[in-house]
Amino acid sequence: MSFGPFLLLALMEGMVTSAVLALAAVGLSLVFGIMRVVNVAHGEFFMLGAVSAWFVSQWVPGPPAVAFAAALVLCPLFVGAIAALADMTVLKRLNYEPEATIVATIGLLYILQQAALSFYGPDARPVPAPFSFRVQLPWFGYSGYKMAVVLASALVLLGVWRLLAKSRVGLIMRATQYDRETARAFGINVDRVYAGVFALGGGLAALAAVLIVPIQQAHYLMGTEPLLLSFIVVIIGGLGSLRGTVIAALLIGLSDGVISTFFAPTLAKIVATLAVALVLVFRPQGLFGRRAL
Amino acid sequence: MLTLTGIDAGYGSVQVLRRLTLEARTGEVLCVMGRNGAGKSTMLKAIMGLVPASAGSIMLDGLDIIRLPAHEVPRHGVGYVPQGRRLFAELTVAENIEIGLMTRRRGQRTRDDVLSLFPRLRERLKQVSGTLSGGEQQMLAIARALCLEPKVLLLDEPTEGLQPSMIALIRDTVVALKSTGVATILVEQRVDAVLSVADRVAFMTGGTVAETVEAAGLTPTAPQFAAYVGV
Ligand SMILES: Nc1ncnc2c1ncn2[C@@H]1O[C@H](COP(=O)(O)OP(=O)(O)O)[C@@H](O)[C@H]1O
Ligand SMILES: [Mg+2]
User: Fold this and answer.
1) For chain A, how many structural domains are there in total?
2) Measured between CA atoms, how close is B40 to chain A, in angstroms?
């Protein structure tokens, strides 16, 4: 294969990484932006999405597409419910103190990981893709499923943006973000908003995992890498900025695709980490973030 | 309309309000005066449920609202204009209004009524509220509270740092509300502003109401102003 098509392939692989990363990172960013909670357990919500998708693929009979569609709906709801429960029983009691919530979510990380090890076991297991056709390009054939992942992620991100910017629920979320005491004085049930936002964040991570699990197997330790990459993306894009998060996910995903293909996956991680360091030094609020007040 | 009886309240272990008793009547403006730190803002927050009260009762139209979760208090018709305005500064004027309307599910008619009180806001609906002038921000804070069609309106130093023309506009608004039967509690530090709108004046010191008097009996040289406000 000559250089041009090779680069195209690398970029397409990078788009798949970007798409999944953007979903996970937007979840992390929403939780930080609205609740000011740094959720260290975010990667475990991702892992739970993948692991629960495997269970759904075992339980739902019929063709893989049916089981996959079920997983796409059920797993984010399941993980969202766990997240809401964690918010109401733990984070709320800590009054959302920044240090306390970091420690608590580290605890949650280990609880969820050990729970997955107990109920799911130490094996990596595949989930069948809903369909397996290949799209034949002039230079190479490419997985139709991977293209569908990019499309699905774009649609969900558009939905999240519309929810935040155009809907009544989004208005309530933004008002709570800016001033939770005054929000209460105007009838906004802040506890419910927080539980909902934490559920939405966890649900987005789970959705990303369901999308990736036909490509990459489910494993109880799979949450670490998406957590680190989500943090990298959120820091580069600017904490709490949806647009910045998506652009940074594209940047990191595409450069990961290109560098991994032409050089080595390790180099791609080094470059991403270096980019974070540079951003932190020269533009601590991130590329699109506002300076902290 | 709104009666506070024997309220104790504060922040954590620090008690601010002590046995506070106060009554706001329908169609009346009750001004609250007192030195900085007397507990005026804390009293309004206690009414809103934003500061927990450890003793006493707050009766609104026969219902004790003291144990309600904070977000349910405004739904019973208490509009709040906080000290320093506390707009949702990154939201537009229209969005701030919308939040006010959502509180008690009020619609287009209420929105039109409120905006006709403040035509300058109608011209700036799409503007981000944090970029408004100080006076316009205060108008918006009042408009947002009026979107509840409140039975009781709490105003915490609304004229602080404003030009005379804006102060006059706010006074006219408060006076106009009286005829619609709203009970207004107005925290205000300026004697002339108080005397021009108040029906009664409550003087606070040390977290409690020391004295409540009819405004008709007060002159700018009344001893209460010297004693409780220091002017
Ligand atoms: N958030 C807070 N936490 C602790 N103490 C507070 C807080 N807000 C106000 N106070 C204290 O409560 C007292 C009354 O304050 P405040 O109600 O704001 O007085 P005023 O409005 O009459 O100037 C003051 O001593 C103030 O320091
Ligand atoms: Mg005050």
Assistant:
1) 1
2) 17
